[in-house]
Protein 1
Amino acid sequence: MLGVVISNIEFPNIHFSASRKRARWFLSVIALFALFTLGQESAQAQHTRPRRVTGMLTERLSANELRHWAAIERFVLAKDSSEQPLYPTLYELWNWIESGGHAVYIELPPAKSGRSCTAGSFSLEQFDPEGTRHVGVIRLFLSTIDQAVAGPAGARSDGFIPLVGLNKEERYAEVLGHELAHAVHILSDFERAQKVEEMVEQTNEIFLSSPRKQDHQISPWMRQRLIERDLLLEKLEAYAEKMEVVIWNELRRSSGAR
């Protein structure tokens, strides 16, 4: 081993208690230096660790929102004693997003207003012309879900009442399932994703960016685009609502078994 060897050292005549204090001080310095070095190495490792770019991405969530999301994740991915998913449809939708090669950001924003009835949404944030990695975002408005009244007034045309008979965690899971169904339905089909980009996202952007006065008439071209957008949204919503009913039934069955 290479190094410097010092022999025949003469120790100075130092009082024992002072020597002990210096030794403790010296050891403290070494410990602090070691901790600093480990911290630097850990920070460097985090800096060099590859950042996830596909699947369910949570980097837009605050620390508090991450705790809420972690609880939702545990609930959705729960398994029974035989290691089978408690909610198979939710589980499959979740896993498709995680392994499908696309990116879906999760956001848990506050309700837009006290009267907002939007419980969740999915939007295509970035369309990839190659179809390799589209970017979407799922937003869950937890406070709106908490305050939603599940009753006959909210029944859909087929008689289904969203959220009825569910506890807090199950409500979050139902709304998330609806938005996951949108995400998988759109991201799994290139032509469908392209239609959403052109007829929904671009139409919304054009409509919102156009300067309009209260009495300004919408142009025939814009009116036609809005009609086509709404027809597409109705089809997309019908699919997500169908999947939501399946998920609601799974949640109710599991709740009854607990």
Note: The chain has one domain: 55-209+219-257.
Protein 2
Amino acid sequence: MNPGKLFEQDFQDSVPPEAYVYRLKDCPGWVSACTCPSGASPRFVPSNDYDYALFWRGNFWALELKSTKGVSFRYDVLRDNQRAGLLKASKIVNAGLLLNFRTAGETWYMSIGMWERLEANATKKSINIKEVRQYGYQMHGKVKVTRWTWDVRAWMGYWE
């Protein structure tokens, strides 16, 4: 399994049972005739606006999870539909990215609004871990041999 999917699984497994978390289903880029409704011809299926919907104690988050082995994320890591979906969601709920820096063992939340402001004022094509540390909110975690457990409860509690 690729590291990004492992991060998603570790995140989902770390959500406390009293919170509601839903992973939006990934669709393949193309749907074949056998899976299309009424045997229709194959068609392109758009991707989701974000990865997760998370609800806890009256707070709702629309989250896109990203993971890197490096120390930066390119701003174009978000597809146009993800950017638009998160911006639309941010008008009503908390919406942003969970940025996982695997080598540093750190995960940070950054609102889509902050991501957009930083990108608009950027002189480069990426955001590095130092900037994320300055403008994001850290989700602490601990590693158990090879897999992570994230303190999602403490992270969610910050927003109360």
Note: Helices lie at 3-14, 80-90, 112-120, 129-135, 152-157.
Protein 3
Amino acid sequence: MNHKDCLVSIGVFNNGLSLKYTLESIPLDYDFDYIIVDDGSTDGTKKILKEFSQQDPRIKLICRRKNIGQPGFVRNLNFGLKIARGRYIARMDADDISNKYRLEKQLRYLEKNKNVFLLASSAEIVNSKRKHLWFAKLPRHPYLLQKLQERNLIMHDSIMFINDKRTFYREKIHYAQDYDFYLNSISREKIIESLPEPLISVRIYPDTDRIDKKREKQILFSEKSKEFFRQRQIFGKDQYENFDPNIIYSTDTSLVVSRLMLEYKIRRSIRIGKNKKSDVLFKKYFLNYGKKQ
């Protein structure tokens, strides 16, 4: 295996505390290329990255001067795709850890199954102290394809896909650019498959107002991606070019009654002990979706 086989794309922003664990999970015995884009970090992240890149010639480090949030994050993903030389792209973020056999197993699977465009895996979910919480298991194709049209099941950091130089993330889809990527691949009749083994550990953090707001935006952008997917199914194209992401940012989420949004708000209310609010949300949910169960 050599650098022509696979490239790992890693996005980084102020991940100094966890970055070391992520980089150390990169297998040393594979001659893959690693593109790491630091999106204007202001902590000690750049110093750690430079130390690793000096020790490991496989690492191609790009440092942005300024962080511009989600638009910059998606732009960096596409920049990595544009300069990638590998036949396959593996995604990874600076807060998660790959199984040491992950890249080898995914690469060998794609080499043996040339009809598969994108290969994901199940994942282990861990807490902020990296202790096991649960396994997020993925169904196999074609059931996976059916479920993806309802909601995103795939951990972005678990994917490896063919570097065809025609597939990119759409930059106006924020927080859910990966889900939009999968739905676009389905529209292009690309096969998405999964491995049942958890090949990556994904860390989650305690709820905060910032995380809740991010998750709500993610749901709204996911719903827009599903809307675009349905448009492509019916009309052969979607209205992405006319889409203004600021509409999502200005949306009052208290008025949104989509299934995914209500499910998230119910879970959140239960977690923080707001029983009266969860009762109201339950009633709203069953009023809209109860008869469809």
Note: The chain has two domains: 6-203, 209-292.
